[in-house]
Structure formats: C-alpha cells, structure tokens
C-alpha cells in the first residue's frame, strides 16, 4: 500500500508550521526514502522553506533513508521519533549528520517529544 | 542513484588520525618510554599497533554492517541487548570528557611554560570557554582545517623525531631492543596512542565509497605509528634516564627546542594548541549530538534534548564542558594526569575486546546481512586478540604510580554510577515521557 498519504500529512504539517519554514529557508535538500521490504521509493524536497513530496527515486539525493515499511510509516506519522529506530539500527541513513539532526528536529517541532 | 556531498578518502584518513592524535599523547609517549625502559618504546608501539589493526578490521566490519552515527549504540544493541548497550555507550561517551580534560591539562602546562606569569588553570578555563561558546553558536572547525591540522601534527612529529635522532648522540644499538620489566604496561599504554582512530566510524553514512572507512583507518594507523614512534624514540635520546623523562610535563616543547631551536619550541606550542582545540571541538560536537540522541530516545532526561536558537543541543554541550572543566581542574591541582591516560587506555582496551565479541555474535545472529568488509581471523584469531585487549585494558586500569589502582577505581565508579542510572532512572524517564507525550506542547523543548 502506498505511503503517499502519510507523506502528504507530513509535508502539510511542515509547510503550515511558520517556525519550520523559517528554520528550513536555507536548507535546500532532496531526501529519498526507500522501504526495505517492498522496495518502494518516495522523495521529499525542501526548497526555500517549503517541502514537496512524491513517489519514486530521485538522482543526486542529499540523503537516503531506508527502513521497513512499518518503521518508515511510524516515523513519518509521528508515532515514534526517528532517533529510536535509528539508534536500534532499524533505520539506515546515507547522508550528512547535520541533515539527519535537522530531520529529527523537524519531527520534534511537528509532533513534540 | 548518486549521493551528493560525499566525503573523500582523505577525510577518512585525517579524521581517524586527527581524533587519535590528542595533545595528551605527548605525555603518553613519555609514560610508554618510561615503562619500556628507554629507546625500545618503539617495540611497545609496534606491538600495540599490530593488535590495533585487528581491532580496526572489526570496526570496519561493524561499520559496513550498520553504517550509523550512533555506531557503538547500534552495534551493541544488535549484538548484546538494550540495557548493556546503553551502559557501554554512556561510559564510552564520557571517555570523551577524559580526553578533553587531559588535553586541557597539557595545553595549560605548555602555555604556562611559554607565558609563565599566567597560571595554567586560567588557560584551562579560557580554552574550554572559547570552544564551548563556539559550539553553542554552531561554529565548527571546518573539515579541511581538521585535515590540515592532523597532517601538520604528524609531519611535525616525524620531522622533529628524525632531526633529533639525526643530531644524536644515539644510545648503543642494543638499547633499542632491550625491553624493560614494564613492557606489558608499555604495550597497554601504547594502545592509548591509537585511541580514537575508530571515531571515524560514526561518519560512515557520509562516505559514498564503503571502503573509505577501513582504508582510512589503516592508513591513519600507519601514519600514527611512524610519527609517534619517531617522536617517542627521540624523546628517549633527549632524556636518557627514566627519572628525567618522568619529570617533564612539556616533552613536545623540549623536543621542538632540541630539534629546531626557539622556532621549534614555538612551533610545537602552536601545534599543541591546534591539536587540543581540534580535540575539544570534535569531542564536544560528537559527544553532545550523541547525548542529544540518547535524550531523544528517552534514555537521558529531556533537558539534554533542549536546542538553542541555533539548533544546537546547548545543555548537552554545557554539561559536557562542565564535566571536562571539573576533571581538568582536579587533574591540574593534583597533577595525576596519568590517571586519565590509563583510564582512557583501559576503557578503550575493553571496547576493542568488545568489538571482537560483537563481530562473532553478529556473524551468528545476522549471518545473511550484507558485509561490505569482513574482519580478519574470525572467529578464533578475533577472539584471541579480543581477549588480549581485555587483559591489556585491565592492565592499563591497574597501572598506577601509587599502590592504589586509581584508574580502576575511577572507571569502576563510573561504570557503577552509569549502571545504577540505567537500572533505576531510565525506566522512570521512559514512563514519564510516555505519559507526557500526549500533553506536552510541541515547542516546549525549544527556545
């Protein structure tokens, strides 16, 4: 089952949050999220404080995130913080640590602890 | 499927060598030479280096298996269990404060020698304050500066060592092969020279070529062995007797002076300062993000997940800086800097032993998971070297200038406190966070 509705909610929450738009105004990044169990890819693109999303792979991604369908779903719906599965090795990331912390802060600002 | 902003091999080498090359290594070289009994200190460094190569291959496999900034937290959690993993990770993270405190001590001694009217403890406070302030403002020493600094230190040590040995006079040749009764302690402390080489593994996610980490570590280990080996042997020619060696707290400045005159003295002072600053900066940055991550997974109080207006985990940085400052001032006051060297060498020896255990356990638990790099000699050689590291680690903890093994008491107390914390406090924090998660306003933890 596609996860697009989850990303849609996530992106809306980001774009409707003025503090996040302010924080991300100079954070222009492309993030590709891949589910390890069914190989589906989704992308998020942050540009000038606004985030867009879509399905499929993207070239030149700044960050690649991989985890099971369940973990990705939980992280991007706010059920768990990304740090929890990340520290357990259930969420693998390819990219810079600064971007990883930024993503964690985004979820913190949207959903709190 | 390309990835932008990937780090090059050069950065893997300089990060591995740079994090291993703390200013306290200068004093560790003195201690190694002292226990080895003179110019044969190179044997201790070589043996320690050969053992470390096995450990490096363990870290390379673990890093390829789970490339993560949370490194040891992930590996121990997968290979052991959550509770043990948390204890190990916390103790490991706190050893960063040992390194910062020890380096602050070295810099204070060096600066006091250069500017005698200013007491050393003022330098400690000023330097830690400056670096903490820079970290709180989100200012980082750029990767390229760290590359240059690591290279500068190793080249400087190599040149100074060669010039001193060239100038002579050299001791009789058999002194280079005659090991003293303290060779075991010398090898155990020799590990300290390489300590930190594996701290490049948390950057694994930032390299597009998975081979960069193992290659970087191996090249760095070779460079460290050559540079510090030359420096240590050169020291034994400047101070032919053990008593003379023990009495100096500024061996690097004296070596610089001996090799290149006043220029060498001031150059070594500059190198000491930049090396310590890099250790402070790198240590505070890495450890504070680790503390932040632990607070986010509710293993530490949420205070440590607090971010300032520059999105920096400010309380984690302030907490680490305060612990480092107190440790540094206590060590400065009592002068027992060897406690920190021996404690760090002990903790790292045990961590290296643990890496061997993790390799074997994860090969059994997750045999089909992709391993871009495979450790050397699994399982028997890995386990034997791991056991050797355990013995050397315990040996380092037992090494003390007095009959009381202060490093063992220091680390033992730390482990006990961390265990009590994990056993009693963590479940309460997790339970509290769970109840609060439905009520807390999203922006409460942010300034």
General description of the model:
The complex is a heterodimer of chains A (113) and B (447). By secondary structure, chain A is an alpha+beta fold. Chain A has a single domain (4-111), classed as Nonspecific Lipid-transfer Protein, Chain A (2-Layer Sandwich), CATH 3.30.1050. Helices cover 42% and strands 26% of the residues of chain A. Chain A has helices at 4-15, 18-23, 69-77, 83-87, 97-111; strands at residues 29-35, 41-47, 50-55, 63-67, 91-94. A five-stranded mixed beta sheet of chain A has the order 3-2-1-4-5. In chain A, strand 2 and strand 3 form a beta hairpin. The radius of gyration of chain A is 13 Å and the shape is globular. Chain A starts with a helix and ends with a helix. The mean pLDDT of chain A is 89. With 447 residues, chain B is an all-alpha fold. Chain B is 72% helix and 0% strand. Chain B is built from 16 helices and no strands. In chain B, helix 8 packs across helix 14 (337-365). The longest helix of chain B is centred in the middle third of the chain and has 35 residues, at 262-296. Chain B starts with 8 loop residues before the first helix and ends in an 11-residue tail after the last helix. Classes of the chains: A alpha+beta (113), B mainly alpha (447). At the A-B interface, helix 4, strand 5 and helix 5 of A face helix 4 and helix 12 of B.
How are the SSEs ordered, and which strands pair?
The complex is a heterodimer of chains A (113) and B (447).
Chain A: H1 4-15, H2 18-23, E1 29-35, E2 41-47, E3 50-55, E4 63-67, H3 69-77, H4 83-87, E5 91-94, H5 97-111
Parallel strand pairs in A: 1-4
Antiparallel strand pairs in A: 1-2, 2-3, 4-5
Chain B: H1 9-20, H2 24-36, H3 41-65, H4 71-79, H5 82-114, H6 120-136, H7 143-167, H8 183-194, H9 212-238, H10 242-247, H11 251-260, H12 262-296, H13 314-334, H14 337-365, H15 380-398, H16 406-436
Helix pairs in contact in B: 1-7, 1-9, 2-3, 2-8, 2-9, 3-8, 3-9, 3-14, 3-15, 4-5, 4-14, 5-6, 5-12, 5-13, 5-14, 5-16, 6-12, 6-13, 7-9, 7-11, 7-12, 8-14, 8-15, 11-12, 12-13, 14-15, 14-16, 15-16
């Amino acid at each position: 089952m596609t996860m697009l509705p989850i990303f849609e909610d996530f992106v809306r929450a980001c774009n409707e949050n003025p503090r996040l738009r302010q924080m991300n105004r100079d954070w222009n990044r492309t993030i590709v999220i891949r589910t390890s169990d069914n190989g589906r890819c989704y992308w998020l693109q942050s540009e000038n404080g606004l985030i867009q999303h879509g399905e499929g792979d993207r070239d030149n991604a700044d960050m690649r995130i991989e985890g099971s369908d369940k973990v990705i779903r939980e992280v991007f719906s706010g059920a768990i913080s990304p740090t929890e599965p990340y520290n357990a090795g259930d969420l693998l990331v390819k990219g810079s640590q600064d971007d990883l912390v930024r993503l964690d802060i985004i979820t913190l600002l949207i959903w709190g602890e | 499927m390309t990835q932008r902003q990937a780090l090059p091999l050069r950065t893997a080498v300089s990060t591995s060598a740079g994090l291993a090359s703390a200013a306290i290594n200068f004093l560790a070289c003195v201690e190694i030479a002292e226990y080895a009994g003179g110019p044969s200190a190179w044997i201790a460094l070589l043996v320690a280096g050969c053992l470390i190569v096995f450990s490096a291959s363990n870290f390379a496999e673990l890093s390829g298996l789970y490339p993560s900034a949370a490194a040891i937290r992930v590996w121990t959690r997968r290979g052991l269990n959550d509770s043990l993993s948390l204890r190990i990770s916390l103790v490991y993270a706190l050893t960063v404060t040992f390194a910062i405190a020890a380096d602050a001590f070295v810099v204070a001694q060096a600066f006091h020698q250069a500017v005698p009217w200013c007491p050393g403890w003022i330098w400690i406070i000023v330097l830690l304050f400056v670096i903490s302030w820079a970290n709180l403002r989100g200012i980082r020493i750029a990767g390229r500066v760290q590359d240059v600094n690591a290279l500068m230190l190793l080249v400087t040590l190599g040149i100074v060592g060669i010039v001193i040995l060239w100038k002579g006079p050299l001791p009789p040749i058999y002194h280079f092969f005659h090991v003293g009764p303290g060779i075991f302690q010398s090898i155990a402390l020799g590990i300290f020279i390489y300590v930190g080489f594996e701290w490049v593994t948390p950057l694994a996610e930032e390299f597009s070529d998975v081979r960069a980490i193992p290659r970087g570590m191996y090249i760095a280990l070779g460079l460290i062995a050559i540079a510090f080996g030359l420096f240590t042997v050169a020291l034994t020619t400047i101070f032919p007797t053990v008593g003379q060696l023990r009495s100096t707290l500024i061996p690097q400045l004296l070596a610089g002076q001996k090799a290149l005159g006043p220029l060498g003295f001031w150059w070594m002072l500059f190198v000491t300062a930049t090396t310590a600053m890099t250790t402070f900066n790198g240590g505070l940055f890495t450890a504070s993000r680790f503390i932040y991550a632990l607070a986010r997974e509710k293993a530490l109080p949420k205070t440590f997940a607090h971010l300032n207006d520059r999105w920096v985990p400010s309380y984690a940085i302030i907490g680490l800086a305060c612990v480092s400052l107190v440790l540094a001032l206590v060590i400065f006051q009592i002068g027992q800097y060897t406690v920190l060297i021996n404690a760090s060498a002990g903790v790292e020896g045990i961590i290296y032993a643990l890496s061997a255990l993790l390799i074997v356990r994860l090969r059994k638990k997750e045999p089909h998971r992709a391993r871009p790099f495979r450790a050397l000699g699994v399982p028997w050689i890995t386990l034997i070297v791991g056991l050797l590291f355990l013995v050397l680690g315990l040996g380092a903890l037992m090494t003390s200038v007095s009959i009381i093994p202060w490093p063992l008491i220091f680390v033992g107390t730390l482990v006990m406190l961390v265990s009590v914390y994990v056993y009693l406090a963590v479940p309460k924090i997790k339970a509290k966070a769970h109840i609060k998660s439905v009520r807390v306003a999203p922006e409460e933890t942010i300034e």
